[in-house]
């Protein structure tokens, strides 16, 4: 390539300088939040991450975590400074191979000032070296790191990354991952995706995991402990890895009887929602005192309490449905939580229908009848429930009821075409409640704003006439479907 020197008269130089946009002449800091309506400080502005490479070492006895995170990103503006979301102790930051200034601000912001400003449209790499004891770190009044008798777990919603890797912590910025974890011999380390390799040296075993499809930060998981691990492949050749702590006690059998049906459930859900979007599947049940479950990508997390009443395939159906609704198609803003939870709950209704334990229509009728008009249940709007009600029963039950109302209104052909088409059109991307309404109107050819306003955005029980219009029976209390209680148990597994 030949380089040519440009000679410009002095007056012309002045004119050129005046023509330079302010953003190019004066780099500015990226915003300390991505702009979420519920969590304004979560995520960051000014850049987009494409890949996380995490090289970690964890000692279960002391809960000591050491790490080096290499983050590959693109600048979206001329950046003088940018933030990462993180809560552990940082010893060094490099940007583009050069040492950068850094400071901890707030309770989960790592503010980084590169040696030279970053140029909009260009890729850059950040290296962060860090360490800490995650279970002792409190941010926003809590910790998302769960200790077990033999290790530690990172799994929570809407945040868990702060305790084990620096990130742009919002579903709008999805990325691929390589997670390499060294743990003492005899201990296992689990993460998302496929296991690429293992190696042992000087009493430590290193596990190398890869997530090759875009993944939101809260869906990244790390589990270290002593597990019984089962492996298999699906009919299509996808690897299935399930793991169970060895000290689950009386819940061990029920947990296995549920999670070991993962491949079967995914095969069925694929017939309803379209092809499974990832290259691995499974689940894990560590010995934690919590009661919730979480749809961590390719490998959902389940608390043992989810199986305290026996096998619960309905819970597994819910978390695996999230692989389409929430993981592949992720929300744009946390107020859009219905596009995650309403659909995963409706998957349980469809499973109940398939298993002969109550049709989706019977569950819709029973849901409507179960809550009197003055019940606080109807005050929550699933389409925008508020941060305090993000995991309220209404987001699940009323959220699924809205989908049954849609199904009745447009018919099965269009309804199931919408489920498959929606997951295909927004595969690996982000979407909102409004996007779904628009898509459903396009496929069905019917105006649907009024229907969704009734079932998702009205803070009161839909009147009997509205229920009849949606073919939901308001006139009598139907018998309770056999699956009802198991589905209700799932709600308690989501109160984080």
Poorly predicted ranges: 1-24
Radius of gyration: 24 Å
Largest sheet: 8 strands, mixed
Secondary-structure-derived class: alpha+beta
- Output the number of helix runs: 13
Please tell me what the overall shape is: globular
Q: Name the helicity range.
A: 25-40%
Q: Let me know the average pLDDT.
A: 93
Provide the β-strand percentage band. 25-35%
Could you tell me how far the N terminus lies from the C terminus, measured between alpha carbons in angstroms? 58 Å
Number of DSSP strands? 23
Lateral arrangement of strands in the main beta sheet: 6-5-9-3-2-12-15-14
Structure commentary:
This protein is of the alpha+beta class and 496 residues long. It has 13 helices and 23 strands. Mean pLDDT is 93; it is low at 1-24. A hairpin with a 3-residue loop joins strand 7 (101-105) and strand 8.
Q: Could you outline the blueprint of secondary structure elements for this entry?
A:
Layout: H1 10-19, H2 22-25, E1 28-29, E2 47-59, E3 64-75, E4 79-85, E5 89-95, E6 98-99, E7 101-105, E8 109-113, E9 123-132, E10 145-148, E11 151-154, E12 175-184, E13 188-190, E14 194-201, E15 204-215, E16 222-225, E17 227-233, E18 239-245, H3 252-259, H4 262-273, E19 281-285, E20 293-294, E21 301-302, H5 313-321, E22 330-331, H6 338-355, H7 360-370, H8 393-410, H9 412-425, E23 430-431, H10 433-444, H11 449-456, H12 464-469, H13 484-492
Signal peptide: 1-24
Keywords: Hydrolase, Metal-binding, Metalloprotease, Protease, Signal, Zinc
EC number: 3.4.11.2
Highlighted features:
13 helices, disordered N terminus, alpha+beta, 8-stranded mixed beta sheet, globular, 4-stranded mixed beta sheet, 496 residues, single chain, 23 strands
